[in-house]
Amino acid sequence: MIHIQDLTFSYKKDPAFSIAIPHWQIQPGDRVLLQGPSGSGKSTVLSLIAGLAKPESGDVTVGGHEVSGPGHSDQWRADHMGIVFQLFNLIEYLNVLDNITLPLQLSKLRRAQVQATGATPLAMAHHWCDQLGIPPGLRTQCVGCLSVGQRQRVAIARALIGEPAVILADEPTSALDLANTDRFMDTLESACQGAYQPTVVFVSHDSGLDRYFTHTTTLNAGVLGGYGVI
Ligand code: ADP
Ligand code: MG
Fold this sequence. Notes:
The protein is an alpha/beta fold and 230 residues long. The chain has helices spanning 42-50, 74-80, 96-106, 108-116, 121-132, 148-160, 178-191; strands at residues 2-11, 14-26, 31-35, 57-62, 65-66, 81-84, 166-170, 199-203, 215-220, 223-224, 228-229.
């Protein structure tokens, strides 16, 4: 599903840091935990997979589509990827349901996925709220008045709606205590246990999350360690 070959990357503003990944293949439905110390390049690797950063050399393909190439577009990303950003990037002036249905406004493909189930976008947003434990009373509130834990659930629902093939998550549990981290991971796991089996790349520097994933790997100063089955 995700294939990286002969990849090198560095920031013009920070030439001392570079990423080198000779080969990395992630199969469809794999759930990958990408760990590594702060500054090791985890967020950069997610940006490269999302096609938000371009490699200096080498290729990144996702589902056979070259995200590192000139044919890659924001539209392709909106159709095929759900991204949970570290700071969630929720739209503050929209309510919970409108934040969750936003990807359906941006992607015909994800809208069609929802239509194929017979549900309206709004009904599907409620479905994901039910799945993720977002109480009915909160759903018409602005996201600005939610707690951090509630915002994370909204961000996850927004990533999952319309069932994109790939979910990328950048340290979504970093602001949570242990109990809330476990609750969050359980929720994500159960959301991906039905017919919908996305390929997940999840960045975290928390230890103890291994059990939620099929594979793990560690990044150190831009170099990927062994890729192992859990
Ligand atoms: P991590 O997510 O593992 O903490 P990052 O990918 O954010 O690591 O950062 C890796 C390195 O790249 C750091 O040295 C950081 O300073 C640098 N870096 C990250 N983003 C940029 C940027 N937009 N411009 C220049 N340097 C950056
Ligand atoms: Mg980061």
